[in-house]
Structures are given as C-alpha cells and as structure tokens.
Amino acid sequence: MQFTSTFFALFATVAFTVAQPPAPGALNFDTLYDNPKGTLGSTACSADVGILKGHTTFGSIPNFPHIAGSFLIEGFNSTRCGACYELLYNRADGKQVVIPFTIINTAPAPSFVSSLQGVTDLTGLNRDQFPGDAVISFKEVPSIDCGF
C-alpha cells in the first residue's frame, strides 16, 4: 500500500511540474560559472546534500555549463539547490530555444545568472552582442532533464 501511495505522490509531483506554464524572467551571465574547476563551496548550494551530493565542482554537474544562480534559491542550503529548470528564449529569427539548467546559487529576482557559454547556447548571442538582460521564460522540470 505504501508503494502505491508513494507512486501516486511522485506521479502527481511530476505531472504538476510538467503541467505548469512557463513564468517570465531575465537571464544574464557571470563568467565565474564557466570554470569547470569552480567549486560549489563558493555557492549557496555548498552543503553537499540532496541531488548535488558528491558534486564538488561546476564541471562535475551533469549538464555543465548549463548551470545558473537563481532567485528561486532563497539562501544557503535551499531545498531548491540542484533543481532543474528549462529556460526558454525566443531568438530574433523566430526560433524558440529551450535548455535545462541546474540551479546552484542565489541571484536577484527575477533573474537567472548563468555561464557565458550557457547564455550563448540559449540565446545564440556572444558576449559582445548580449544586451545585458535577456528576456526568458522558465519552468521547473524533472531533475533527469539535467542529467541527474
């Protein structure tokens, strides 16, 4: 009986996560997140717990360089550390690009701050073309989408 209730609770969580509509946000970059040897010890998600347990560097995160700080992480050891969010960007050519990012640090609301490579992969813009804050949409997705 416990298996059945656990299964339905998990199914409801996944169904809710997938069903939620994207929310508006902003994206910027910090080249700090481009360093594969950068340590999680320098972030709000440094407690070595939850889904990030055993990951000590940015490069050890399965979907590096698609990592980001986010306003969704309230502070040290947030329960959202390691959560996976799809970031959606509408490029000038009309193409919508969607990439899952693992959140590992705090950022000002309503922003995500990623590696320069992550921003380039999502927007198609290089450092010189980047406008400052890119308008994005985001939604939480299952951690498997980020390689966990």
From TrEMBL:
<comment type="similarity">
    <text>Belongs to the cerato-platanin family.</text>
</comment>
<dbReference type="InterPro" id="IPR010829">
    <property type="entry name" value="Cerato-platanin"/>
</dbReference>
<protein>
    <recommendedName>
        <fullName>Cerato-platanin</fullName>
    </recommendedName>
</protein>
<dbReference type="Pfam" id="PF07249">
    <property type="entry name" value="Cerato-platanin"/>
</dbReference>
<keyword id="KW-0964">Secreted</keyword>
<dbReference type="GO" id="GO:0005576">
    <property type="term" value="C:extracellular region"/>
</dbReference>
<feature type="signal peptide">
    <location>
        <begin position="1"/>
        <end position="19"/>
    </location>
</feature>
<keyword id="KW-0732">Signal</keyword>
<dbReference type="InterPro" id="IPR036908">
    <property type="entry name" value="RlpA-like_sf"/>
</dbReference>
